[in-house]
Design goal:
With 122 residues, the protein is an all-alpha fold. It has helices at residues 6-23, 35-45, 49-62, 71-80, 86-91, 96-106, 111-121. The chain contains seven helices and no strands. Residues 26-31 have low confidence and may be disordered. The chain starts with 5 loop residues before the first helix and ends with a helix. It is globular and about 35 Å long.
């Protein structure tokens, strides 16, 4: 079961797309260099461990490393294999926003509805 709200995933997608549009990426190789990248890094770092593992699992599903039916296994693997800070790992993934969006679609979660939730949070 997904242990992060769709609103939070949508927030990551929105911020990642903003950085890609503004800077062509996240900044330097470590994802530093812009206020937007630093904001996204802090947002991911402030998620709890279950939320971070779920975020990674959704990205893996979007990248087709796992199928949507393997969500629980992907979450368990993300928890077991976490050796670096999640924000460092995800900020180093090219096409992060696309993979997260594809992962939501595979899980039958509406990005549009999730984005509406983000607008309510801001």
């Amino acid at each position: 079961m997904l242990q992060i709200t769709a609103d939070k995933i949508a927030h990551v997608i929105i911020r990642a797309r903003e950085m890609e549009a503004d800077f062509g990426g996240f900044g330097d190789a470590d994802g530093h260099g812009s206020a937007a990248a630093n904001d996204l890094r802090a947002f991911i770092a402030n998620l709890n461990d279950d939320e971070q593992a779920s975020l990674v699992a959704v990205m893996w599903i979007g990248r087709e490393t796992y199928d949507a039916e393997e969500l629980d296994e992907a979450i368990d693997t993300a928890k077991a294999e976490a050796t670096a800070p999640t924000e460092d790992y995800l900020m180093g993934v090219p096409m992060l926003a696309d993979y997260l969006e594809d992962g939501l679609n595979a899980l039958d979660i509406s990005l549009e509805e999730a984005e509406d939730g983000v607008l309510r949070l801001t």
